[in-house]
């Protein structure tokens, strides 16, 4: 019959149906419709993404420069962490995850010179800017708790992305 109902199961749902030990975060990051599935509030997917170990892996994608110069994962993760996904932002705002994200500023020091990969710095900046806009009080409270906050940012003033974050913090939060 012409009007038969065909149920389409997304590739994300197929991954979620697999045993957890046979699927990895990389499998999800390789899916083209990952962000779209988050936008449609796929609860099973969001449950997966906010798991403690998955959240740490997501933040790790922003911190670590890929060995093959393929920034696809970092780009997708920056979309996830800066997207309008309340559950992901709530998890990101936990102190342990903010510490992990913030450590991006600390882990690129070599001798007295610090260098940030400009692509990763832009992804880091995008995530922080989103938090400044959407959750300013929580982020400012966290940053104030960091004793070396100013120096950690000032050390990277040669990065336009970090300078943009500082400008936004000063402009919005005084």
Report a brief summary of the structure.
It contains twelve helices and two strands, in the order H-H-H-H-H-H-H-H-E-E-H-H-H-H.
In words, what does this structure look like?
The protein has 174 residues and is mainly α. It has one domain (24-107, 116-173). The chain has twelve helices and two strands. The protein has helices spanning 11-17, 25-29, 34-39, 43-49, 52-63, 72-82, 86-92, 95-102, 118-134, 136-145, 149-154, 160-173; strands at 109-110, 113-114. A two-stranded antiparallel ribbon has the order 1-2. Helix 5 (52-63) packs across helix 6 (72-82), helix 6 runs parallel beside helix 9 (118-134) and helix 9 (118-134) runs parallel beside helix 12. The protein is globular and about 50 Å long. The N and C termini lie far apart (65 Å). The relative contact order is 0.10. InterPro entries: SAPS. GO terms for molecular function: protein phosphatase binding; protein phosphatase regulator activity. Keywords: Cell cycle. Belongs to the SAPS family.
Can you tag this structure with a few keywords?
single chain; 174 residues; mainly alpha; two-stranded antiparallel sheet; 2 strands; protein phosphatase binding; protein phosphatase regulator activity; SAPS
User: Helix content range of the residues, please?
Assistant: 55-70%
Could you describe the largest sheet, including whether it forms a barrel? 2 strands, antiparallel
Tell me the number of strands: 2
Order of strands side by side in the largest beta sheet?
A: 1-2
State the order of secondary-structure elements, H for helix, E for strand: HHHHHHHHEEHHHH
Question: What is the radius of gyration computed over CA atoms, rounded to a whole number of angstroms?
Answer: 18 Å
The helix tally amounts to: 12
Proportion of residues in β-strands: under 5%
Number of domains: 1
Note poorly predicted spans.
none
| Average pLDDT reading | 90
Oligomer: single chain
N-C termini distance:
65 Å
Q: Give the overall shape.
A: globular
Name the structural class: mainly alpha
């Amino acid at each position: 019959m012409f009007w038969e109902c065909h149920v389409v199961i997304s590739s994300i749902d197929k991954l979620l149906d697999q045993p957890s030990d046979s699927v990895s975060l990389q499998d999800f990051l390789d899916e083209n419709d990952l962000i779209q599935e988050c936008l449609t509030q796929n609860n099973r997917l969001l449950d997966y993404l906010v798991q403690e170990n998955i959240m740490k892996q997501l933040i790790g994608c922003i911190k670590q420069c890929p060995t093959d110069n393929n920034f696809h994962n970092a780009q997708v993760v920056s979309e996830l962490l800066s997207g309008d996904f309340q559950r992901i932002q709530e998890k990101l705002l936990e102190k342990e995850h903010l510490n992990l994200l913030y450590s991006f500023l600390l882990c690129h020091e070599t001798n007295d010179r610090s260098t940030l990969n400009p692509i990763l710095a832009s992804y880091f900046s995008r995530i922080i800017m989103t938090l400044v806009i959407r959750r300013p009080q929580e982020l400012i409270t966290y940053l104030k708790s960091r004793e070396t906050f100013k120096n950690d940012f000032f050390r990277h003033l040669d990065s336009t992305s970090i300078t943009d974050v500082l400008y936004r913090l000063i402009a919005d939060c005084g």
